[in-house]
What does this fold into?
Amino acid sequence: MKNTRMLAALAGTAFSALAMATAVQAAELRMGWWGGESRHVATQKAIEACGAKYGHTVKGEFTGFDGYLEKLTTQMAGGTEPDIVQVNWPWLPLFSKDGTGFADLRQVKGIDLSNWTDADLTAGSMNSILQGLSVSTTGRVFFFNTTTFEKAGVPIPKTWDEFFEATKTIKEKIGKDYYTFNAVKETAHLLTILTVVQKTGKDMVDPATNRVAWTPEQLAEGISFLGKLVETGAIKSQKEEAAEGNVNLFEKPAWAEGKISGSYEWDSTYSKYADPLKDGQVLKPFPILKVAGAVTDGVYAKPSMVFSISKHSKAPEAAAQIVNCLLNEPEGIDALGTSRGLPASKAAAARLGTQGEPEVRAANAIVMASAGPVVSPFNEHPEIRAAFIDTLEEYAYGQLNADDAAKQIIDTVNDVLAEYD
Amino acid sequence: MKGQRFLGLGYLGPYIIGLLVFTAIPFFGSLYLSFTKYDLMSSPDWTGLANYERLFTRDRTFFKSLNVTLLYVLLTVPLKLAFALFIATVLNYRLQFIGLFRTAFYVPSILGGSIAIAVLWRYMFATEGLVNMALATIGLGPIDWFGDPTNALLTITLLRCWQFGSAMVIFLAALQSIDKSLYEAAAIDGAGKVRIFFFITLPLLTPVIFFNLIMQMVQAFQEFNGPYIITQGGPLKATYLLPLYIYEEAFKKFNMGYASAIAWVLFTIITVLTLIAFWSSKKWVYYAGDKRS
It folds into this structure.
């Protein structure tokens, strides 16, 4: 039955593609995305394969996540964005508040939209206009370096209490320069959110009032939890991180050596963190640790990035062919694999079956099996993210206590939310 | 004659078009945007002086960033000029391999503003970086270069000072153009090297010092790469220079109107300081042949 469905999905996709192939002239296209090394390699192979299939030339413009938003903003403001753009889902309201920021994907011929669920298509729409196609559903999970835990003879923790015990043991047995976790910038932000959501069962934004759903006391507790991670030596302090140059976790020698043995990351980024580990070390995804008294797992799951087509593209139908190929056709699906997480497209999911990295599948399974409230895209609004990161830094440097930090964050977030009333 | 006039206009045309398209229109465009609310994706909405009112009455980050920027300029410009003049003076002597030395000292100016050097700087000054390793060999440190708010600004300042090459080359050219007979006359009168430097060399260099002062001050106010790559404006906004704030408001927070207002305040500050420098130059800059001298 499963095979029949897979064949039907692929046959439908192939038929649509064939119908389009004869009508579209060869074009020179650009595609922009962010990612790590493995995603860059996979995507370059995929655009080459899809370009060759349809006779188009597709030039990749890729970078890391840092700076990608600014780059895309500049391009969007000047109308020079690539023909095909990878857009973070929370950015859709920024670039296309009224649904006119990108090409209407229902009007561009060549994409087999039957491969997405209605929920996916709704999530990719602004003002009911389809602006982006969901590439995958993603969420944050815990990655632990099991080699380090084994070396210290402690099991992987299942609760935060076990985690703090494990931290103590690892430091005593292997060395004080070992840290069981990493939480800076957006990871610190999302970890704070996680603990508050677990305690309250509510997302940061109350959809009924469009204001922060938490009380200052509830947020202060989450901020204090971050302080506890530093006090117990589970993570480095922000001052120490700054002293080391605020290097990305996957670029840190301590991470590669297993001296930092855990983090809270997107399920799809497994390779980015596993690849730098030195020989023999094993990184695995684990279920979300819960604080005492948690009422939910608090999983931070959301549509991942979407693929959009520029409204300024001179060859939107050629771009649509490439998008369809990347997400729905064997050439693109095989080359991309799970480099962006487990695909949302039915055709891709069917073709990949159990292919792809088992650890990415395991991580995604954890996300899908965990409970939590619906996540608002405002959690990752640039101004709200900056409010969290800046205030958490002031807290880390002792400029603010947890109560004042919580009040400051809530006031700033409410000011931003008020602009969208 | 008429044909020659058109020929002249033809030669000037590309420059005038470039000036209009790439400088004048964006310049006045940003002035207009500073009076609007503009999120880059939709049309600007005229808001009058609202951006400036917010800037001067409610924006704590602006005043923090302004203080940091002024401190940065105050530290960087004199240090860089003094260092450039010192090296230029040394390179003015007839040393062996002088050409090689001059080239070597100029290289950081070419490389210094690049992203690669900023990244290198981040690794050099990290806790376990080259600088702390070197300090450890003489029993010093380690110094928290980036984690301590005071040191972080100093580290960014050092990067800027290291790029002293262009100022140095200008000083060197000026030193070489000083009439040797003045030195000979001073030496005959029994003046020592220090006295000669302060009473002959330095006064004759004042026009070039003035030129370098203006250029370096304007460049320092526009510094971006160093703090953006190395410290991202932190810690605690200790290196959050105004260009970084303008950039984040414009391209991270989509407040192009507000960012334009900050840019115009920065432009006004630079203009006022430049005018003060020009006004004060009458009292300390010596031009050979000047009737006032």
About this structure: Chain A is about 45% helix and 15% strand.
